[in-house]
């Protein structure tokens, strides 16, 4: 059981590293602000929340760690906080950028257009 | 391509320097005598803080006067920014009035998440500050974490939400002053009992009801928490005054 937890944790940390790498590449390569925001969220959810949960599992599965429950609890709580905060932050950024009309708005598909005209 | 040459040069210098220097550095294996003294005396010693967290013991006990003056530097920085933004009574009232372009803060998603996170931040910052003598952290760190809560509320709801609920600049300043006064009083109490200034162990009890409070450390941490949190909040409230309002004040002052 402990070993399974340990390996799940280690794999989640590796997934986190890969997500961070892809997020960084996306931030550099994606064409406009809204799509870059997607890359940034990949970096925070995939690259921070997943490895934090991974650290929690790894700590639970590790026999050699002192205070392993404290480490696991702290990482789970931090992970949940980031899980809550990151989408709200991305939402706030997108909302503020749209409202301030800083970013050029050139959608391929705009499902909200009808609604907006009816306002 | 040409831009990469300085980068490569700097990297090469760093790596070659590290390669040459690192083997010649002798590794530090043993704790130095001074460090050993602190480690042994901060919890087990007869005349010390009885704090397992050595850093806090050093900060508020062994070199407490230094930390006191660090706090006063922070205090002066806050005073400086308050002076920069000084408003008279009438202007302050006007700054509290909502501007026309104010539309009630950000969206529902952000507001709901902010509510949850603000409650979490309050709990975590109090825990950092009040556990300062047991775990890493302390008054300043806890206060800085506390200041994030009003900052998030300002971002999500606007500063008017804080002011409507009673936390305006004056209240924040009063809280900060209470914190500073508390630090000064805790520092001066030993003088009344025949001790030295900021002396800890013989004056303040190390345990209250079998709970380790490490003498004066917990009081210092709590008051520093209050002072730092409220000081930052006051500055954030001033920074959140819309630019248009401030420009109006400045223009009016230039006319008079």
Task: List descriptors.
heterodimer, A: 119 residues, mainly alpha, 4 helices, elongated, B: 256 residues, two-stranded antiparallel sheet, 11 helices, 2% strand, globular
Task: Summarize the structure in short.
The complex is a heterodimer of chains A (119) and B (256). Chain A is an all-alpha fold. Chain A has helices at 2-29, 33-61, 68-100, 113-118.
Could you explain the architecture of this structure?
The complex is a heterodimer of chains A (119) and B (256). In chain A, helix 1 runs antiparallel to helix 2 and helix 2 (33-61) packs antiparallel against helix 3. The longest helix of chain A has 33 residues, at 68-100. Helix content of chain A is 81%, strand content 0%. By secondary structure, chain A is an all-alpha fold. Chain B is mainly α and 256 residues long. Chain B is 68% helix and 2% strand. Chain B contains eleven helices and two strands, in the order H-H-H-H-H-H-H-H-H-E-E-H-H. Chain B has a two-stranded antiparallel ribbon with strand order 1-2. Chain B starts with a helix and ends with a helix. Classes of the chains: A mainly alpha (119), B mainly alpha (256). At the A-B interface, helix 3 of A face helix 6 of B.
Largest sheet of chain B: 2 strands, antiparallel
Total count of helical runs of at least 4 residues of chain A: 4
Largest sheet of chain A: none
Q: Tell me the quaternary state.
A: heterodimer
| Percent range of helical residues of chain B | 55-70%
The run of helices and strands of chain A is: HHHH
Radius of gyration of chain A: 19 Å
Mean pLDDT of chain A: 87
Which runs of chain A of at least 5 residues are low in confidence (pLDDT < 50)?
A: none
Spatial separation of the terminal alpha carbons of chain A: 57 Å
Widest sheet: strand ordering of chain B: 1-2
* Strand runs of chain B, count: 2
């Amino acid at each position: 059981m402990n070993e399974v937890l340990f390996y799940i944790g280690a794999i989640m940390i590796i997934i986190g590293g890969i997500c961070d790498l892809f997020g960084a590449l996306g931030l550099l390569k994606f064409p406009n602000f809204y799509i870059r925001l997607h890359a940034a969220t990949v970096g925070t959810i995939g690259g921070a929340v997943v490895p934090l949960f991974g650290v929690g599992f790894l700590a639970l599965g590790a026999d050699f760690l002192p205070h392993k429950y404290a480490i696991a609890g702290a990482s789970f709580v931090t992970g949940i906080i980031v899980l809550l905060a990151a989408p709200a932050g991305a939402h706030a950024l997108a909302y503020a950028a749209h409202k301030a009309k800083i970013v050029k708005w050139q959608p391929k598909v705009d499902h909200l257009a009808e609604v907006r005209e009816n306002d | 391509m040409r831009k990469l040459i300085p980068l490569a040069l700097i990297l090469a210098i760093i790596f070659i320097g590290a390669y040459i220097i690192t083997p010649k550095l002798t590794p530090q294996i043993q704790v130095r005598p001074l460090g050993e003294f602190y480690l042994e005396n901060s919890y087990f010693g007869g005349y010390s803080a009885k704090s397992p967290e050595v850093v806090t013991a050093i900060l508020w006990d062994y070199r407490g006067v230094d930390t006191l003056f660090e706090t006063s530097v922070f205090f002066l920085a806050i005073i400086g920014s308050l002076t920069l933004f000084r408003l008279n009574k009438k202007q302050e009232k006007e700054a509290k009035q909502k501007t026309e372009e104010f539309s009630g803060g950000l969206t529902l998603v952000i507001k709901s998440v902010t509510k949850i996170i603000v409650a979490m931040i309050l709990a975590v910052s109090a825990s950092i500050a009040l556990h300062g003598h047991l775990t890493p952290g302390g008054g300043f760190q806890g206060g800085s974490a506390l200041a994030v809560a009003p900052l998030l509320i300002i971002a999500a709801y606007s500063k008017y939400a804080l002011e409507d609920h009673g936390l305006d600049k004056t209240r924040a300043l009063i809280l900060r002053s209470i914190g500073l006064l508390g630090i000064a009083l805790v520092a001066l109490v030993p003088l009344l009992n025949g001790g030295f200034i900021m002396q800890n162990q013989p004056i303040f009890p190390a345990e209250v009801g079998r709970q380790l409070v490490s003498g004066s450390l917990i009081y210092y941490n709590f008051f520093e928490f209050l002072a730092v949190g409220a000081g930052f909040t006051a500055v954030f409230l001033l920074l959140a005054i819309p630019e248009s309002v401030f420009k109006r004040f400045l223009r009016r002052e230039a006319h008079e």
